[in-house]
Design a protein that fits this description.
Layout (H helix, E strand, L loop, with lengths): L15 H22 L5 H26 L18 H9 L6 E2 L4 E2 L5 E3 L4 E3 L4 E3 L4 E3 L4 H25 L7 H37 L4 H5 L22 H10 L12 H5 L5 H11 L1
Antiparallel strand pairs: 1-2, 3-4, 5-6
Helix pairs in contact: 1-2, 1-4, 2-4, 4-5
The structure holds zinc ion (2 copies).
Length: about 290
């Protein structure tokens, strides 16, 4: 969802309402295409339509839950805490103006691995990226749900693409008649191909990120992240606990209870050069 050579912070966000309308039109066209292909309505066709509708409803639920949910916003200081009208907070901010761990916009000390998002106007824990399609950040609380959305969207594209290919009718005499009979599925094929490839690529990328307990932001902007300045370049994933534990924590752990600390020099001593080496070796070692 990021254009090459464009810094993440400088991306211009599209209007979220337009994106949501586009999302619904695209998915309703997909459902309509499957119904059109199965218009004979044999028992098998009805099963295909029901499966497609269930998958679409699942995507819609995940999409909207992500769009309006909490990605892991860092709590703001309570107004009641500042009995001096915020004077101490302002003085504190002046004092920490140069401290990269302080967010001057939120007025808080940022936890490690968090980042301020200018679109959401909040700091987000274990920041991954701001998703223009969702109009929301992907962070510590919603990264798992985002991965399931990518899997669901990829499956929906593959299924609809398969139905379109199977549903194309042959044996028609003229090309005009053939096109008239197959216009809907043929028109959908390039659209499904592009979107399916896009969703699958993101799915593969995020699976790699999850397997190494890194984030897209850490992966792409490592040289600009303050706490990576103390991490040796050969240490690819300082928070990785091995493939199995990374996956277990990501898929079964409670993201609201996860807290990260800067890795110590001792913890980084045994880390391998590449993410893959580190994951596999830690996993085998238990
Ligand atoms: Zn902030
Ligand atoms: Zn954001």
């Amino acid at each position: 969802m990021s254009s090459p050579n464009v810094p993440l912070d400088e991306e211009i966000e599209a209007n979220p309402t337009c994106i949501r309308v586009y999302w619904w039109i695209a998915h309703l066209l997909g459902v309509g295409c499957v119904i059109w292909v199965c218009r004979g309505l044999s028992q098998r066709s009805i099963i295909h339509i029901v499966f497609d509708v269930i998958l679409t409803v699942l995507c819609a639920y995940l999409y909207h839950a992500l769009s309006f949910g909490d990605p892991g916003f860092v709590p703001l200081p309570s107004p009641g805490m500042a009995e001096d009208g915020g004077a101490s907070t302002k003085a504190h901010l002046r004092e920490h103006k140069e401290d990269p761990m302080w967010c001057l916009k939120c007025g808080i000390e940022r936890p490690i691995r968090s980042k301020h998002c200018k679109h959401c106007k909040r700091c987000v824990m274990r920041y991954d990226h701001h998703c223009g399609w969702l109009g929301r950040c992907v962070g510590q609380y919603n990264h798992r749900r985002f991965w399931f959305l990518l899997i669901s969207e990829t499956s929906l594209c593959v299924f609809t693409f398969g139905m379109c290919v199977v549903g194309i009718v042959g044996g028609v005499q003229s090309s005009a008649a053939w096109l008239a009979s197959n216009l809907y599925p043929v028109a959908m094929l390039p659209f499904l191909l592009v979107n399916g490839f896009f969703a699958l690529s993101l799915c593969v990328m995020h699976t790699g990120v999850i397997a190494t307990n890194t984030t897209s932001w850490e992966w792409l902007r490592r040289s600009k992240i303050p706490w990576f300045q103390h991490v040796p370049p050969e240490v690819a994933a300082p928070w990785s606990l091995g493939l199995c534990r990374n996956l277990r924590i990501f898929f079964w752990g409670d993201p609201r209870r996860l807290r990260y600390e800067a890795p110590t020099a001792d913890q980084m001593k045994g880390k391998r050069a590449s993410c893959c080496d580190e994951c596999v070796s830690s996993c085998v070692a238990g």
